[in-house]
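Regression test case RT-17, inverse folding.

Input:
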């Protein structure tokens, strides 16, 4: 047995599962997302930033001489944690890619390197960050809704401040408080990833 001062639930798509272990019902659900990876190409500059089309969240970026294509869609499944890559999706993402960037018509997809993974989605698509309601030492960092990798350094800093100092000092995290959904005060939904 170990004696600990604080516990942080940063379990990603499995946040609700971990929450249940502590007796907390977290409104975090997994959402499958897929990445189509091209064969090596010089269609994009390596330092080109990620580009997002906000009307449907299609986005692309360059990485290691390849183009990565992403288009969120719903995947019918009985297992919310399924990360099986869905081959039918390649046709869908390629159609959108060619529509947005006509030069992508010559892009060849390396199916062996395409992947599927899970986002952790909150109802308002914003992070739940801070002390879990009703607990003194159980903290939540859940529901990034596709922004986790981008926001993780800041989220870690803010949560460390709250745990060590009892409050955040570098940014007001009130809009991210875990109790906001139960209070009926969700943040405006901004759906783009």
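Golden output:
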């Amino acid at each position: 047995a170990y004696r600990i001062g604080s516990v942080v639930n940063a379990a990603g798509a499995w946040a609700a599962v971990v929450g249940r272990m502590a007796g907390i019902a977290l409104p975090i659900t997994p959402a499958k997302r897929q990445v189509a990876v091209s064969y090596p190409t010089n269609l994009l500059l390596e330092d080109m930033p990620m580009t997002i089309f906000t009307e449907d969240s299609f986005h692309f970026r360059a990485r290691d001489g390849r183009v990565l294509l992403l288009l969120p869609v719903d995947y019918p499944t009985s297992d919310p944690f399924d990360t099986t890559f869905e081959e039918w999706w390649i046709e869908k993402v390629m159609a959108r890619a060619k529509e947005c960037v006509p030069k992508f018509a010559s892009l060849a997809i390396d199916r062996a390197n395409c992947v599927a993974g899970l986002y952790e989605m909150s109802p308002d698509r914003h992070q739940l960050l801070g002390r879990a309601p009703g607990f003194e030492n159980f903290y939540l960092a859940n529901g990034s809704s596709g922004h986790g990798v981008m926001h993780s350094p800041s989220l870690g800093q803010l949560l460390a401040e709250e745990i060590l100092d009892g409050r955040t000092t570098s940014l007001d995290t009130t809009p991210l408080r875990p109790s906001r959904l139960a209070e009926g005060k969700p943040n405006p939904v901004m759906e783009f990833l």
